[in-house]
Design goal:
The complex is a heterodimer. By secondary structure, chain A is α/β, with parallel strands linked by helices. In chain A, 38% of the residues lie in helices and 29% in strands. In chain A, the strands form 3 sheets. Chain A has a 6-stranded mixed β-sheet, with helices on both faces. Chain A has a 4-stranded antiparallel β-sheet with strand order 2-1-4-5. The longest helix of chain A is centred in the last third of the chain and has 17 residues, at 303-319. The two termini of chain A are 39 Å apart. Chain B contains 12 helices and no strands. The chains are: A alpha/beta, B mainly alpha.
Chain lengths: 320, 256
Amino acid sequence: MIEVSDLTHRYGSLLAVDKLSFTVREGEVLGLLGPNGAGKSTALRATVGLLTPSAGSIRIGGHDIAREPLAARRLLGFLPEAVALYPELKVEEFLRGVARLKDVVKAREQGELERVLELCALQPVAKRLIGFCSRGYRQRIGLAQALIGDPPALVLDEPTVGLDPGQIVEIRERIAELARKKAVILSTHIIPEAQRLCTRVLILNRGRCMAEDEPGVLEQSLRGGNGVRLMLDELASEARVEEAKRFLARLDFVRAFELKESSEGRCAFSLALEHRSSAARLIDALVRSGFKVCELSPEKLGLEEVFLRLVREEKEAAGA
Amino acid sequence: MRKAVSLARMELRRNFRGPVGFAVAGLFLLVHGIYFVSLLENYSGASFMAINASQTPARLNLVDAVLQPLASGDTFLLLLLLPGLTMRLLSEEWRSGTSELLLSYPLRDFDIILGKFLAAATMLAGLLVLSLLAPLCASVFGAVELPTVFSQLLGLLLFGLSCLALGTVFSALTANQILAYGATVVVLFSSWFLGWWSQNLFGIWAEVTGWMSLATHFNPTSYGLIQLSDLVYFCGITAFLLYLATSILNSRRSGG
């Protein structure tokens, strides 16, 4: 539904987005993650036709947004970050106006209006001036205007920013409902939000795509295999700890390891194994060599850590 | 066109939910009314003197003494008030960020400009309809030539549309409403003074500066004379300025 290929955009000499490519199919939610200034908003603005990129192409439902902008934008719903609305209009008036601007046929106008008001739970404020609506309601009005015309593609830029926890949960529920049958791009820097809502995640930094995959796959791939947390007991002396390290280094199915913490004779290691099945061999080898294993559990490397690690690596690479 | 009309409707609603629409309409009617009453008083005084005098002045009639100066005065008033209507058309969208929504809808850039312009043009048409109260009142005191009134109305409308188109250009250029207002007023007054200046020049310069002035093309209509060249001038300049505003919107989209 949304195909972005080799998207590049410069603001003067500043390269904001560099050869970014991704596709989003119906039923998919692509999360755009990245630190501030990573190029997320530029990529989204180009995707919805708010700016003309320096290079690259964007196709919405097969329509190139540069060549057939109206056909492409007809398939899109856009919720900008901190959505700005017309405070002088009533909610219903505004949404009706948007329906007309979005080519909703007159006969379907009222039905469409009622549908989005219900979907975004806006009936209580339908006759209220937007200027008198709370921040949460205004965000829902923003979502409602994006949904008018039932576009198959949605682009949501930081949809929960500035909301209180209750409102955040509500908006997330609405997005999760919509995501079942639409192609959704969601820009956020709230990582649990991306983990909960996104079927795929694209991590952007300095305008470049650092990684793109399902959140679970990203977590695994970055560990370089299957990560486990190993806790050894009775390593009373420094010499015994060194011995354990040497022993782990000799094991061919341990790709990498790191001593995480050591206190009162207990040492916690983080290990990257060749295969998940190597865990049994690891326990066997340790026990045979006289080490006392008190814990061996799959290591949980969250998306947050993946994100931070990728960004850190990029910074180090740029520094070197 | 349907989308431009829908956008214009939204814009008009917004104008009358806030002070802008009422302020512009109120100021126009107030100043227009005061000027009309003073012109009418002068006319009745001159008429009274003419009755007592042995010779009646050659041009003592309602059109020359009241309606023509009133129409000329209205152009001056419109120069000051219409930029107040146009200053927010797009500047407000840029400033508040609502342009992000507007530009993401399936609208051509020209639809956006046309919609905004239509809203302001409807306000102008409303003001001009209300200004018809003056010839209506004047008709109580004497015969009013309807074709002249129609000509003045058409002249004011075309003049006003050109002013609105120029204001739309400046509104598309900047997010600062005061700047948009100031720039529009400065350019409109410069054009107005060109007309006066041209009267002190000779030859080709007099013709060129006179032709460039909006006032020069309005004056014949205020006397009831509708010339094709003036109609073409106003329509051409309005169309060109709307095209320019569309290009500015398009280039803002390109630049992000």
